[in-house]
């Protein structure tokens, strides 16, 4: 009996996933775009993450592994870049992706253009939606965060970070696009490196920022579809010159 | 002597204007785009404007001339749509433009694509930057407002309104574009009619919203260049289908 109940649950989940996939396809009608349904994770905002600890050390005049990874004993080791959890892991930049997949169960998607479908946008802040995106021979971390910068007024912040060095990040441009209800919002920028803290990118507001009413206008039944594209910076510069 | 001083002042102003024009041209390098330098006006936010008065009446159950212009004694008369000042004027929709030009000294610009260069972005809220834009046989009102929705945290809100009816407004799409420091932000939407209050569009947040840090990233020496383009909605829909 338990077996049948579980099977039925799995089938229902599949139907739900298929329905959400269809909705996102309808929004981004370009054929061949990969749609990824991303479920929220309650953000452990107040937990002392490595990043926060590193920032505190930096304020106290101690070099932080987050902003100054040269200060780590082995200069080739970087701390865990997962924005969700406090994690004592550190390792080489090349193995950050497998650590994020295996330990933090962050999905990875292939493709130049994908659609990130964040579900349950109504959940209270702090909440994060995270995936990795593999493209142009590199891996990127996409973070959508619901956060209350001003008490009682949650906002959504979306940014893309390269799992690589700041110098490597300078070679790319990422684009986030929202398109619904006869409104379109596009944000294009150079990704930051995961060696910089995602928290500081968001607190600086140097990312796509949405207030709740705009997020609702762009959402469909509580889900927000974000079209993502990554190009090399040369293409971006050529466009700017046209 | 006074004559020479004034002449010298005028020449300095011209050089300053030319310099700002050059800066905006450098940002939006497309040839032939008209650049309009727009100076700020301190917004009389707390004055009982017709709009605010109309909204109070609406709350009290009285039909408001702002949201329900059918309720004006002569249904063809509309109140002054200037978002800056309380003004007792009312007239036909066709003469709103000449009223705004003559009484409120709001500049009007011709051209499908123009660059709106808002100066002195550092001025405290509430401040407005306003021009009219004549394009595709219609006139539009562009409003950039600096306002503190959350005390101590000023934000910038930009929207475009058709000086016409809501039905006419549905035929157009406007685009606002910021482009600087390897970042690009584009907002596309259907303009609202000036018969709706600009104040409610901004309080709903259904417009381009910039926090102070993003506004600084897009500004050049205290001036913010916004590229503006208006198209008919058919073009917009065709683009969305591609």
UniProtKB/TrEMBL annotation, chains A, B:
- Quote the catalytic activity from the record: S-ubiquitinyl-[E2 ubiquitin-conjugating enzyme]-L-cysteine + [acceptor protein]-L-lysine = [E2 ubiquitin-conjugating enzyme]-L-cysteine + N(6)-ubiquitinyl-[acceptor protein]-L-lysine
Name any one GO molecular function.
Answer: ubiquitin protein ligase activity
Q: Where is the Seven-in-absentia protein TRAF-like domain?
A: 134-228
A GO BP entry = proteasome-mediated ubiquitin-dependent protein catabolic process
Tell me which Gene3D superfamilies the record gives: Apoptosis, Tumor Necrosis Factor Receptor Associated Protein 2, Chain A (2.60.210.10), Classic Zinc Finger (3.30.160.60)
Q: In which pathway does it act?
A: Protein modification; protein ubiquitination
Stored InterPro entries: 7-in-absentia-prot_TRAF-dom, SINA-like_animal, TRAF-like
Going by the record, the broad EC class of this enzyme is: transferase
Stated EC number for the protein is: 2.3.2.27
Q: Which UniProt keywords apply?
A: Metal-binding, Ubl conjugation pathway, Zinc, Zinc-finger
**Quick check: keyword Secreted in the entry?**
no
> Could you give one GO CC term from the UniProt record?
cytoplasm
One Pfam family here: Sina_ZnF
* Family per similarity comment: Belongs to the SINA (Seven in absentia) family.
UniProt domain comment: The SBD domain (substrate-binding domain) mediates the interaction with substrate proteins. It is related to the TRAF family. The RING-type zinc finger domain is essential for ubiquitin ligase activity.
The function of this protein is:
E3 ubiquitin-protein ligase that mediates ubiquitination and subsequent proteasomal degradation of target proteins. E3 ubiquitin ligases accept ubiquitin from an E2 ubiquitin-conjugating enzyme in the form of a thioester and then directly transfers the ubiquitin to targeted substrates.
Q: What is this protein called?
A: E3 ubiquitin-protein ligase
The organism of origin for this protein: Falco tinnunculus
List the lineage, top down. Eukaryota, Metazoa, Chordata, Craniata, Vertebrata
């Amino acid at each position: 009996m338990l077996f049948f109940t579980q099977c039925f649950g799995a089938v229902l989940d599949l139907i739900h996933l298929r329905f959400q996939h269809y909705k996102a396809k309808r929004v981004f009608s370009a054929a061949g775009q990969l749609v990824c349904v991303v479920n929220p994770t309650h953000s452990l905002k107040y937990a002392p993450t490595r990043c926060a600890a590193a920032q505190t050390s930096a304020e106290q005049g101690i070099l932080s592994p987050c902003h100054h990874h040269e200060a780590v004993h082995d200069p080739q080791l970087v701390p865990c870049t997962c924005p969700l959890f406090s994690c004592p892991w550190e390792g080489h930049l090349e193995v950050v992706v497998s650590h994020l997949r295996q330990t933090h169960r962050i999905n990875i998607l292939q493709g130049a253009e994908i659609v990130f479908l964040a579900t349950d946008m109504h959940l209270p802040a702090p909440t994060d939606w995270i995936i990795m995106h593999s493209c142009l021979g590199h891996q990127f971390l996409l973070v959508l965060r619901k956060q209350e910068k001003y008490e009682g007024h949650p906002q959504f912040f979306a940014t893309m970070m390269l799992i690589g060095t700041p110098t490597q990040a300078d070679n790319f441009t990422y684009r986030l696009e929202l398109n619904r209800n006869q409104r379109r919002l596009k944000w294009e920028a150079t990704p930051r490196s995961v060696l910089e803290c995602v928290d500081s990118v968001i607190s600086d507001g140097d990312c796509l920022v949405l207030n709740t009413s705009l997020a609702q206008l762009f959402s469909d039944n509580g889900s927000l579809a974000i079209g993502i594209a990554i190009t090399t910076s040369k293409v971006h510069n050529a466009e700017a010159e046209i």
